[in-house]
Design brief:
single chain, mainly alpha, 3 helices, 41% helix
Length: 80
C-alpha cells in the first residue's frame, strides 16, 4: 500500500529522527498499514540522505512535455 504524506511526516518527525526507528520496527508498530519493507527502507534512506521526501518542483514532468510559453510556430516555406 502507498505511504501517504501524513505517514511520511509522522515517520520523519516523530519516529525516525528522534527515536531512530528502523524499517522493521515501523512495520511491527503499524501492521495494519500494509506497507512493504522495501518501501519503508527506501523512504528512510531518502530521509537520511536528503532530509526530505518531497519531490522538487518539475521533477515529475515527462521529457516529452512541451512548455506552452516555449512553443514557436514553424512555418513551411512558400515553395514546399
Amino acid at each position: 500500500m502507498k505511504i501517504l504524506q501524513e505517514d511520511v511526516i509522522l515517520i520523519k518527525e516523530n519516529l525516525y529522527l528522534p527515536k531512530e526507528y528502523g524499517a522493521q520496527r515501523l512495520l511491527s508498530e503499524f501492521p495494519d498499514k500494509g506497507w512493504k519493507l522495501g518501501s519503508i527502507d527506501s523512504l528512510l534512506k531518502r530521509i537520511h540522505n536528503m532530509g526530505i521526501f518531497v519531490r522538487q518542483p518539475g521533477s515529475g514532468i515527462p521529457l516529452t512535455y512541451t512548455w506552452p510559453h516555449l512553443r514557436c510556430d514553424v512555418g513551411l516555406g512558400e515553395g514546399n
